């Protein structure tokens, strides 16, 4: 019984410490800087972050309140600071908070690229930050950024996970989020969330791309199945490859 209670007690202590750290800390959350077509998304991501921060015990000034306090022009200038901690502190001085959270949102191909920073509103020091590539199709942008709020506001390093890709036939080329990651078996440290994995090996049919969810501090092993292509169906690398007569002379 005692062994079961110890983890619960440790979790309770951690939660109490977190709440004590948050109490009395005022945090302003700024709409993420984004191109016109993503401005509504940038605002919704900031609102999700603000909601999570408030649930963690922080006194939060949300994106709408920040805009109201500063006025149109000053607010637009603050948003353009993106993830520049010193800029956020300088342009957000009138908010009268302890910390300011800002960032940027862009779309690159089939993924969102989001960067968020927590800045000391007095000194402009960078207290914590995150950068992530989140597939658009995963529909996890708001959730993933919001879930990172407690750790980011505490100033700790963002958690990572390990993604292992293994195939029965070794040596398959691997791409993770459309970036080459080596050949199987391969292990890659990644940020928490969903990652696009694809493998290819000559002589085998390419496996379909798969989305693999990697939790913070977790290790996930993905084993895609590769199907061998019969030799008669394999394309030749050149018009003459596989043709001609082999002659062996014995002396």
At the first level of CATH, the class of the largest domain is Alpha Beta
Helix content: 25-40%
> Uncertain segments of ≥5 residues (pLDDT<50)?
3-20, 239-251
Question: What portion of residues belong to β-strands?
Answer: 25-35%
Order of helices and strands: HEHEHHHEEEHHEEEEEEEEE
CATH homologous superfamily placement of the largest domain: TolB, N-terminal domain
Structure annotation, total helices: 7
- In CATH, the topology of the largest domain is named Rossmann fold
Q: What Rg do the Cα atoms give?
A: 25 Å
Q: What key attributes describe this structure?
A:
single chain, 2 domains, 7 helices, four-stranded antiparallel beta sheet, Immunoglobulin-like, Rossmann fold, 29% helix, 251 residues, alpha+beta
């Amino acid at each position: 019984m005692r062994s079961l209670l110890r983890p619960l007690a440790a979790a309770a202590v951690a939660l109490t410490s977190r709440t004590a750290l948050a109490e009395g800390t005022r945090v302003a959350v700024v709409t993420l800087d984004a191109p016109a077509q993503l401005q509504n998304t940038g605002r919704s991501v900031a609102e999700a972050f603000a909601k999570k921060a408030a649930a963690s015990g922080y006194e939060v000034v949300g994106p709408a309140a920040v805009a109201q306090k500063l006025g149109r022009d000053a607010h637009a200038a603050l948003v353009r600071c993106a993830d520049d901690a010193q800029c956020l502190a300088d342009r957000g001085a009138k908010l009268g908070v302890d910390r300011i959270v800002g960032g940027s949102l862009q779309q690159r191909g089939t993924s969102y690229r989001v960067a968020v920073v927590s800045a000391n509103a007095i000194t402009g020091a960078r207290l914590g930050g995150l950068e992530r590539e989140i597939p658009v199709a995963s529909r996890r942008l708001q959730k993933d950024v919001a879930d990172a709020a407690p750790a980011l506001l505490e100033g700790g390093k963002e958690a990572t996970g390990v993604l292992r890709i293994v195939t029965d036939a070794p040596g398959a080329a691997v791409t993770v989020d459309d970036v080459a990651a080596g050949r199987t078996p391969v292990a890659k440290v990644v940020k928490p969330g969903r990652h696009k994995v694809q493998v290819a090996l000559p002589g085998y049919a390419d496996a379909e791309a798969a989305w693999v969810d990697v939790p913070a501090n977790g290790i996930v092993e993905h084993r895609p199945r590769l199907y061998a292509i019969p030799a008669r169906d394999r394309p030749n690398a050149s018009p003459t490859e596989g043709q001609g007569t082999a002659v062996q002379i014995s002396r």
